[in-house]
Design a protein that fits this description.
This protein has about 325 residues and is of the alpha/beta class. Helix content is about 35%, strand content about 15%. Helix 1 (about 1-10) packs across helix 8 (about 165-185), helix 6 runs parallel beside helix 8 and helix 7 crosses helix 8. It is globular and about 65 Å long. One of its GO terms (cellular component) is cytosol.
């Protein structure tokens, strides 16, 4: 099956608009919060057709508790003699330079990498990223869920050490290559996103820190106040019908597209982006409807319609204008 896909792609002219190289990345971290740190990183460099050029791996001393050791297996003792992120920043940057960053749930890996470079008063030399979750949706792969292990199983790639950065990067590189060739054979436009620089910098002196270029650990982005939605709420979304301007939309959980970009698209379409869920909410967008988040629980209580990110993206293409008063 995999050989047939690759052969079919080889008979199709390679798109000149496709990137000329990729850096498949995986990072393990002390946790998922904005002040958590990278404890290991791996990069597989691929050429424009997804063939492996080389790979690289390093542990990183986070200068703090390593977090869920039972997941990543890296103890404080193992990390004690590892280099600091600032020590490997140049090597890491050299492997990203001029390439598209590829990761599974890329917004997470990119966010962690960008924050580490911000702490080191540096900017990573990567302009675009590609999420393999988004690509699998574009290809309409018949996956039971969006876990890396499901993508790997689909392409017959065997995982050896789940949650080890080097093996996860290897698995993703091996699954990305046939995905890339399938995209070529189907004429799919790659879901590339811009890697925006962080806004964690402050020109104001911070107590106990350097007076310029200070890193403020608790601030991920400058707060943004969205303009009030100018349209009245037309009520709840109904399956099979289009979205309508003024509908209140809430989001819950991880998204393959940067949450802020997704909310921007919703706002530009004339929807009201709600930060919480109430009886007035028209729709909840989540990729994990079985999770126990407060929004999902309230959606069940109120009978609020729930759809996933892919379906929401389709609906955003044709939002019905608000009714004229």
């Amino acid at each position: 099956m995999l050989e047939d896909r690759t052969t079919a792609a080889s008979d199709t002219p390679w798109p000149t608009a496709y990137p000329k190289g990729y850096a498949v990345v995986d990072v393990e971290t002390t946790g998922l919060a904005r002040d958590d740190r990278i404890i290991s990183a791996a990069v597989y460099r691929l050429d424009e057709r997804g063939e492996v050029e080389d790979h690289w791996y390093t542990m990183v001393n986070p200068e703090r508790d390593p977090g869920p050791v039972w997941i990543h297996g890296l103890t404080s003792e193992m990390l004690e003699g590892a280099p600091l992120f600032g020590d490997i920043a140049d090597e890491f940057a050299a492997r990203l330079d001029g390439r598209v960053l590829v990761a599974h749930n890329a917004v997470f890996d990119w966010s962690m990498i960008a924050r580490e470079y911000a702490r080191a008063e540096r900017r990573p030399p990567v302009k675009q990223r590609l999420c393999t979750i988004a690509l699998s949706k574009e290809l309409a792969l018949p996956l039971p869920n969006h876990k890396l292990e499901s993508l790997a199983a689909h392409f017959g790639v065997v995982q050896q050490r789940a949650h080890h950065a080097l093996d996860d990067a290897r698995v993703l590189a091996e699954a990305f290559r046939p995905s890339l060739h399938a995209a070529v054979s189907k004429g799919v436009r790659l879901p590339l996103l811009e890697c925006r620089p962080l806004t964690e910098w402050s020109a104001t002196p911070l107590i106990g820190r350097q007076p310029s270029g200070g890193y403020r650990p608790g601030s991920w982005r400058a707060s943004r106040r969205r303009p009030a939605c100018p349209y009245p709420n037309p009520g709840r979304y109904e399956e099979g019908k289009p979205l309508k301007q003024g509908m209140r939309v809430a989001f819950s959980g991880d998204t393959s597209v940067d949450r802020e970009l997704l909310e921007d698209r919703a706002t530009e379409a004339g929807l009201h982006v709600a930060t919480s869920l109430s009886r007035l909410t028209s729709l909840l967008v989540t990729n994990d409807p079985d999770s126990g988040t407060s929004k999902v629980v309230r959606a069940r209580q109120y009978g609020t319609p729930v759809i996933d990110e892919a379906a929401f993206g389709q609906l955003l293409r044709d939002v019905e204008p608000a009714s004229e008063e």
